[in-house]
Amino acid sequence: MIKALLFKEWKKTKWFAIGAFIAGVILLTYLFLKLGRSFRMVGLEHLWDVIVNRDQFLFRDLKFFPPAVGFCLALAQFVPEMVQKRIKLSLHLPLSNRKIVFTMLGFGMTLLMIIFAMHLLILLTFSGIYFPVEITASMIYTLLPWYIAGLAAYAMMSWICLEPSWKRRIFNTLIMFASLQLFYLTDFPGAYSFVVLSVVIIPFYVLPFGYLSVQRFKVGIQD
Amino acid sequence: MKNRYSINYLIIVLGTLLLAWLLPKSYHLVTDTASKNIFTYYSSVDKAFCTIDFDDKEERLIRKNMNTNRVYSESEFDSILPMFYSRQLMADGRMPKSIDGKVINLNDVKFKKFFFKITPADKNKPHIPLYTLFESMSGRVRIEMPGDVFRLNSKIEFINPETNRVNEEKSQCFNKIFEKRGFRFPAKMAAGNPSTRKAYDEGYFIIDNDDQIFHLKMVNAMPFLRKVSLPAGVVPEYILTMEPDDRSFYAFVFDTNKRLYIITTDAYKLQEIPTSAFDINKDQLLIMANPLFWNINVISSKGKTVLALNADTKQVVDEVTFKQDISESAYSKFILPFAVGFTNANTKYIKPMVYFGSYWVLLTNLLLTLVFVFITRYRKQKIQLFSVVWIAITGIYGFIANIIFNR
Predict the structure, then answer these.
(1) What is the pTM of this model?
(2) Do B129 and A134 touch (CB under 8 A)?
(3) What is the DSSP letter of B329?
(4) What gap in Å lies between CA A56 and CA A59, rounded to an integer?
(5) Structural domain boundaries of chain A?
(6) Nearest-angstrom CA–CA distance, B214 and B228
């Protein structure tokens, strides 16, 4: 039964997932070409100097890409469920509601992690060729909060989509924007080094919120 | 049903923490005013501290001598602080030929005048441990990029940025001298000034794993490494290098006993710079030096202390303290029980921090708990122990979160 549920989720999100991956690759290619131009124009030594001594970060354009993917995946996955209250059908499957909701959310989260991991792998391969391990490590510490923000954006947006009451949706949206700010407190490269592991907790802390909204939906709460 | 409650509690906890972060932030956004920073400089003419302060009543800058309270006009003030306003006085042809019988050499003024500032965030910030070592004796006027950077892990390694490969030959050559001089890897820190916009280069001052300081330079493409002998009891915590025009010292050393030293160019002797209680992780330090006096400004949350030191002996000549009014406004004291923060002016790192208010706020918390119980009964809801306890602890934040999310 869970397999069938996962297949349903994949059918809903397949084209979006492929699209998000390709959009990410295009964005990365653009950034690599831009950097390649800098390598030719000013040389790698100058670029290293700018990164190390002037605290510049070369991949700043990636900042809002992960949350944008997270938002869109949640919309692709849960808006069809909420239109005409189709989620009712899913909730009638011979499985506990908890299992159904967490399978759906778990699917989305895993899919997002796969897309993000592939992007980061491409990025790290590039970085490994042109930069020493010290610069790559700083790059990871700078990028990780943004990618974790993508996971949190997905979990929060799912919560908002699954919520049956519009009034509560507004409060949920406020919580979402306030929470997402936590990932963008500074642009300084590596500023999250001490807390990056604690930041990982946020999306997983928020993930069960959607289940509460489904429960509220089940007991008939609406505007 | 139990799950439902626990998820609701998770939402309330998150909402409370976000409010504990954003409400005080908004409060400060509306109420914060700049703390008064009075410019203070020791006058070599009046032999007293002189200040420039904005007078709120007269709505203009007041320049005066702190001892005599005599107020000066702008041009009079230039003459009272000839070292600070040397350029203006030279342009006007008003620079004194001598002060206290000491002949004032204009080149001396130019070379011995410097400004040095360090804030806690300059030290507490992420940095990539790669360093650029310039050629110190290239024979060229302009400092040029060396074509590599070095790292200090279990040994020193030079990496060529164009190939991203280690230059084995150069690394080995430098490593030999590190071993010979008894350097203990890994290094705790390396301080240098990797800028080509300076008059000359003095390389790096490195603290090794045994808390010894070494001076590293590249001279004619060869390594120069020298151990700096430290007086007993000095354990260096942080170093900042400076290449002053008069070449009188190499670097500032901050030790674990919160003392400040300079490493002089006179056989690397350490000379203590007296400061009032100064913590590099909390306070700002500003040094305004001239050939006659060094003005040491220590700015902390309690206020500002300024010391005037004799430039040659570094003995304290005069000292003045301006206390900062740190009384918290009554409004926040009674309403906001605590504040959560993630950024701080003392560091560039993101770190969660909790600031606690006064005990008075417990009264407000109690009042809010009673209001919540009343509202819950009015809404004909069951009173939950979690919510009551949570509001009693977190006050206004928990109250708002419960009102919204506990329906």
Answers:
(1) 0.92
(2) yes
(3) P
(4) 9
(5) 2-218
(6) 6
Q: Can you tell me the mean pLDDT for B366-371?
A: 95
Of the candidates A147, A155, A67, the residue with the CA atom closest to the CA atom of residue A104: A155
Q: Which residues of B touch A212 (CB under 8 A)?
A: 4, 7-8, 11
Q: What is the pLDDT of residues A50-86, one digit of tens each?
A: 999 999 999 999 999 999 999 999 999 999 888 877 8
Tens digit of each residue's pLDDT (9 = 90 or more) over A14-37: 999 999 999 999 999 999 999 999
Q: Which pLDDT tens digit goes with each residue over B15-31?
A: 999 999 999 999 888 88
- pLDDT (average), residues B92-107: 88
Note whether A45 contacts B: Cβ–Cβ < 8 A. yes
Q: What is the pLDDT of residue A150?
A: 98
Type of residue numbered A150 = G
DSSP for A66-118, please give it: HHHHHHHHHHHHHHHHHGGGTHHHHHTSSS-HHHHHHHHHHHHHHHHHHHHHH
| Residue B230: C-alpha distances to residues B57, B180, B207 (Å) | 52, 19, 12
Size of interface A-B (CB pairs under 8 A): 102
With a CB cutoff of 8 Å and minimum separation 6, the contacts of B309 are B273, B274, B293, B294, B295, B296, B315, B316, B317
Q: Tokens in use for A158?
A: 């799912």
Mean pLDDT for B56-65 is: 89
Could you say which of A48, A131, A182 has the minimum Cβ distance to residue B342? A182
Neighbours of B113 (CB within 10 A): 18
User: Token match 């939950």: residue?
Assistant: B384
Cα B158 to chain centroid, rounded: 30
Q: Which residues are registered as beta bridge partners of B263?
A: B251, B270
B377: which 2 tokens? Answer: 């009964």
- Determine whether the interchain pair B194/A215 forms a contact, defined as Cβ–Cβ distance below 8 Å: no
Q: Is residue A36 less than 8 Å (CB to CB) from chain B?
A: no
Cβ of A47 under 8 Å from any chain B Cβ?
yes
Task: Give the list of residues 6+ apart from residue B150 with CB closer than 8 angstroms, or none.
Answer: B130, B131, B133, B156, B157, B158, B159, B171, B174
Is B331's Cβ below 8 Å from some Cβ in A? no
Cβ pair B130:A212 closer than 8 A: no
| Residues from chain A contacting residue B7 (CB–CB below 8 Å) | 208-209, 211-212
Lowest model confidence (mean pLDDT) among B101-115, B281-295, B306-320, B330-344: B330-344
Least confident of B12-16, B53-57, B290-294: B53-57
B370: tokens are 């009673």
- Interatomic CA distance for residues A100 and B134, integer angstroms: 63
Write out the two tokens for A213: 């909204």
* Chain B residues inside the 8 Å CB shell of A188: 125-126, 348
Phi-psi region of A45 (alpha: psi -120 to 50; beta: other; left: phi over 0): alpha
Dihedral angle over CA of A104, A105, A110, A115, nearest 10: 100
Residues of A with Cβ-Cβ distance to B132 under 8 angstroms: 49, 52-53
Does B165 contact A at CB distance below 8 Å? no
Distance from CA of A119 to the nearest CA of B (A): 23
Neighbouring-strand partners of residue B340: B354
In three-state secondary structure terms, B355 is strand
Residue B62 CA: distances (Å) to CA of B77, B81, B305: 10, 15, 20
